[in-house]
Amino acid sequence: MDFNDSPEEAKIREGVRAWIAEHTAEYEGLPAPASNEEYVARQRSWQKKKYDGGYAGITWPKKFGGQGKGPMESIIFSQEEGKSAAPTGLYAIGLGMCIPTVFTHGSQDVIDRFVPKALDGDEIWCQLFSEPAAGSDLAGIRTKAEKDGDEWVINGQKVWTTNAHLCDYGIIVTRTDPGAPKHKGLTMFIVDMRDPGVECRPLKQMSGGSDFNEVFFDDVRVPDSWRLGAEGEGWKAALTTLMNERLAVGGKPRYSPDWSTLMAVAKEIETALGPASEQADVRDQIAQAYINDQGVKLTQQRSLSALSQGKTPGAEQSISKVVVAKQMQDISRFALDISESAGFMAAAEGSELAKLQGSYFGSAGLRIAGGTDEILRNIIAERVLGLPGDLRPPKDTPFNEIEAL
Amino acid sequence: MNFDFSDDARELQAQARKFFDAEAGPDSARRVMNDDDIAFDEGMWQGVVELGLTALRVPEEHGGLGLGAEEACLIAEEVGRSLAPVPLMSTMLFTEALLAAGTEAQKAAWLPRIADGSVIGCVGWGEGGTQVPTSMPNARMTKSGLTGMKAPIADATIAHVGIFTGARTAGPGLFLVEFDQDAVQVEAVTTLDLVRQHGRVTLKDARAEAMGGADAYGDFLDKAAVLSAFEAIGTQDAAMVMAIDYARDRVAFGQRIGRYQGVKHKAADMYIKQQLARAHAMHGAWAFEVDAPELRQAAAAARTAALDALAFTAEENVQLHGGIGFTWESNCQFYYRRSRALSAALGSRGFWSDRLVRTLERRNAAAA
Lengths: 405, 368
Description:
The complex is a heterodimer of chains A (405) and B (368).
Chain A: H1 7-24, H2 36-53, H3 71-83, H4 92-105, H5 108-119, E1 125-128, E2 144-148, E3 151-162, E4 169-175, E5 186-192, E6 198-202, E7 212-223, E8 227-228, H6 234-248, H7 259-268, E9 270-271, E10 274-275, H8 280-308, H9 320-338, H10 340-344, H11 352-366, H12 373-384
Parallel strand pairs in A: 1-4
Antiparallel strand pairs in A: 2-3, 3-7, 4-5, 5-8, 6-7, 9-10
Helix pairs in contact in A: 1-3, 4-5, 4-6, 7-8, 7-9, 8-9, 9-11
Chain B: H1 7-23, H2 26-34, H3 42-50, H4 69-82, H5 88-101, H6 104-115, E1 121-124, E2 140-142, E3 145-154, E4 161-168, E5 171-178, E6 184-189, E7 198-206, E8 209-210, H7 214-249, E9 251-252, E10 255-256, H8 261-290, H9 295-321, H10 332-345, H11 349-367
Parallel strand pairs in B: 1-4
Antiparallel strand pairs in B: 2-3, 3-7, 4-5, 5-8, 6-7, 9-10
Keywords (chain A): Flavoprotein, Oxidoreductase
Domain Acyl-CoA dehydrogenase/oxidase C-terminal (chain A): 232-385
Domain Acyl-CoA oxidase/dehydrogenase middle (chain A): 126-220
């Protein structure tokens, strides 16, 4: 066993580090963007640099404009990018999930039209999947697409669409045949987010922030050539997206408290019995936090090691998100608890307590986004451990005849 | 990067697993439990010796195989999985104590006999009360010998030699005691684990040889924690498989109970806890193998996480089986009982989680 890069990986890392250091200097110490325009401009400038430097679409096949390299190259780049001041995030969904679906299921014309402009950062993409009545049960979506000559007409509503208000295009799953069984009547399209029939309404989260939207579609017309995959094969296309999502999500947010946060907070708190960090219940929480944080990191190392060795990682990675999200909530709550009144009153911006207050709310969202704790446990139990699935209506029941039990 | 066991280590594990699958498991554990006259399965022990499992970590110059920590860890996992009623863990821990804290003469005297299976060893720090492994022992060495009481000591009733803690100025140190002397009395004690026999060792001015002091003992404890984490993960995995098999089979309200999320999510939690424990245990195996400065931290995390996973799984395995799981005839009790044995064997979760935090604090202070 060893935790070092192979000589080949070390060489790649060295090159990546030098390139990133040279190209991120201008972002060092910048204040947070003051407007959406500034945010987009900053993100776009970084994506363009990556594109020009040959670091965009690292694992994508060359014929789609990618670099045709292995997963380790991409992982090394992300690791180094994450340590730098590079402004990342806006393109994660588009390039991580949407465009791989486009080049897997789209026609050559569609690929030629959309993939290069997405990769160089010109056009920003979002993913229009969840609906008010279909979240965990994604295949239950109701947004309609009806054929009209060479076009499709889309009507309905999506929700939880991250960055929809900043995007140029999206991939959308629609129901094209309500009389077909649930998973058979779906079709996926590309949709123009600037179409006058598309309305984005920002959702305000319980944290007070606004990262995602409700999106309404009112007679939005898309050409049949923008279909991704065959009519009725939308579920298959959606699975491509979701498989890519699992590769993309699972890491933790940039700020995420861990055992050392808790230790630092506890050290500063004086109680009648001495520093809080000397008390058994606090120490137990710190230990538990370490077990979880470091356990997830080491589990990721196991998967990376397999990739590095040219092997297929095992199922161990399936635990990451479910552990990380709940852990973030537990640590934040515990740290706010032992901070007593100070943990409850709005803390000074930028302070450790303010970050903990933020992550107490952020974690509540993280436990739901990209697969709830419950869905992820179902997946582990069914796919990894081989337990039988929930009982469901017979698979061939037409969608519009399914009744709630 | 290569954060995985070597192919050679995996191959050895596969051989051991094949052997224990055929010879050990709950049925053999039950035979030993039901017969008060047997403390272990002698036939199986012969097989273990023939497979070379007692010689694994013994250096070649002492007649052993000279293998590394990786191999030992994976064998510990198989002992844990199979509940094998043989004194292999005790003998492996005895070997590690000799390697970490023994003099050259002590190694030369005992390691060859460990390797060829002619000697069974045991180790112990407990004195039957509420001490933790780092408490100052009551056992004390004077000019006339080592005096004290050690219990519960796994496999003491069948061992030929033991390594025990005794008071030293700087904390507990280790002492090597041959059992074939009048000053050493060993009797069986009843514990919550009815398969792995434990003993009480009473020493009255016993001939004993001093080994390493507090530092060497600390080093041994960390290595023992890594091995015991793998043993616990093996036992946990067996209990998890048992629970899953039952959930796939048992029908209630017209469906297999594994379809219910109340059942399914418990199974997922068993897996999640196992994966966390396994990642820490592998980190510990690495630190053990290369003698990394992270060993103490990794060992404490591995043991804490493994005890968590095992206690949860052993308890929920009974729960998922319902009434049948609570019966004497069910095999659930073996994992439930072994969970207690492994917790008591080396200091409980609370001791190790505190040791973990203390190590992290020291590391932070050193970095500051």
